[in-house]
Write a structure and sequence with these properties.
By secondary structure, the protein is mainly beta. Helices cover 3% and strands 34% of the residues. The strands form two sheets. It has a four-stranded antiparallel sheet with strand order 1-2-7-6, with no helix packed on it. A three-stranded antiparallel sheet has the order 3-4-5, with no helix packed on it. This is PIHD3 protein.
């Protein structure tokens, strides 16, 4: 079994490299923080009482991803956050998180807020989906 490469000088085929692996950094000794992912839907009375829009409680009908990251002993000014379509990259002097997101997001439309009393960074990202019979708005 031999894989044909588009370029004779390459040592692997582009299909062999997992998506998002360019962000993996196994040599960084910083600790990975605890985090929690939840999904948020925007529903109205037409959804709750009448079921007119066809939304259900599954993640397929959610508009936002909310990620809560615990960052004890961290100041707001120490946090570096980068968002790409499928990757969240968070770095502090003591912690590092490279999170592959479950759905593609709109990296330009997001919010982050640091809750200093709880020492939690809350990141809300808009899911980027193709329009279908459920997600039509």
């Amino acid at each position: 079994f031999q894989v044909k490469s588009e370029n004779k000088k390459t040592i692997w085929n582009t299909e062999e490299v997992p998506e998002g692996s360019e962000f993996d950094d196994t040599w960084d000794p910083r600790e990975k923080p605890e985090y929690e992912i939840s999904f948020k839907q925007h529903v109205g009375t037409e959804d709750v009482f009448f079921g007119m829009t066809g939304k259900d409680p599954s993640t397929a009908c959610c508009e936002d991803i909310v990620i809560k990251i615990k960052l004890p002993e961290t100041k707001y000014s120490d946090i570096t956050l980068g968002i790409q379509d499928k990757v969240l990259d968070l770095r502090t002097p003591k912690k590092k998180l490279l999170l592959h997101l479950p759905y593609p997001v709109n990296s330009k439309e997001g919010r982050a807020r640091f809750l200093s009393e709880e020492e939690i960074l809350e990141v809300t990202l808009r899911v980027s989906r193709k329009l279908d019979f459920i997600n039509f708005s």
